[in-house]
Amino acid sequence: MADGSNQMGPTQAAVHEILRQLIQQNNTRDQQVMNILENIASQRAQPVLATGTIPNLNATIGTFDGESDDAGHAQGWISSLETTALLNQWPDLYKLEAARSHLTGAARNWYLARQSEIETWAKFKEQFEQMFTTAISVSEQWKRLQARTQQRNETVYAYFHDKMPMCRQLKLSKSESKKLMCMGLHSKDMCNVLMSRTHNEEYEVLQDLRECDEVFQSRNERFKSTSNSKSTLSKEENFKIKLTP
């Protein structure tokens, strides 16, 4: 019996050691899993904005100074702000702060004078629209439309995209809109080309406008280069004549 007891002792000790090692390995593996999960959680938490923080979206929203009586510009600004707020899921408090921080000039002075009355986003929007989005009279719109011409340093595209909406606001026909747009072009030749063609849609006018602009610019550069070459040759010939005894 003594011999049997001596044989069982080492066997139990070995089993205990194996169990201890398995438990230790399991603990180590569990700790590694916990570390991985913590890293994943911290990475997911990084993009989340801190409470009360508004991202820098100056380029997206832009500023508003209220120094123009263009109701469309004012409406476009507040619509841009609301779109940005919707995409970023801002609460009304964030929208109000974003609007306040993007007001400059006369618009900022208007807000400061009424700051105590404008405590919510709804009140801000209501008073803003009453002050800045009131439509101008039809006669004033027509006056501005006729006065709008292409400036010397303004591209035909910038002029086109600014004047055509003015025509749409007055609900003019496509032919009337095209005529008024052509009347304001700086280039007489471009005006004649466009008026000689038939256009059923606004984009067709723009396509011909682009084609004419490319041709005219190419010709101007080519003939300008030729003119400079002739001028240089003429100066050289005059210089030679002066040197001839």
Describe the protein's architecture and organization:
This protein has 245 residues and is mainly alpha-helical. It has 11 helices and no strands. It has helices at residues 2-45, 58-61, 71-87, 92-101, 105-113, 121-132, 138-147, 156-169, 174-183, 188-195, 202-243. Helix 8 (156-169) packs across helix 9. The longest helix is centred in the first third of the chain and has 44 residues, at 2-45. Mean pLDDT is 80; it is low at 46-52.
Question: What's the helical proportion of residues?
Answer: over 70%
- Give helix and strand order, one letter per element, not per position: HHHHHHHHHHH
Identify the overall geometry: elongated
Radius of gyration: 38 Å
- Low-pLDDT sequence parts: 46-52
Put simply, the count of helices is 11
The total strand number stands at: 0
Measure the end-to-end span. Answer: 144 Å
Strand content: under 5%
Structural class: mainly alpha
Short description:
With 245 residues, the protein is an all-alpha fold. It has eleven helices and no strands.
Short key terms for the protein model shown above:
245 residues, mainly alpha
Topology:
Elements lengths: L1 H44 L12 H4 L9 H17 L4 H10 L3 H9 L7 H12 L5 H10 L8 H14 L4 H10 L4 H8 L6 H42 L2
Helix pairs in contact: 3-4, 8-9, 9-10
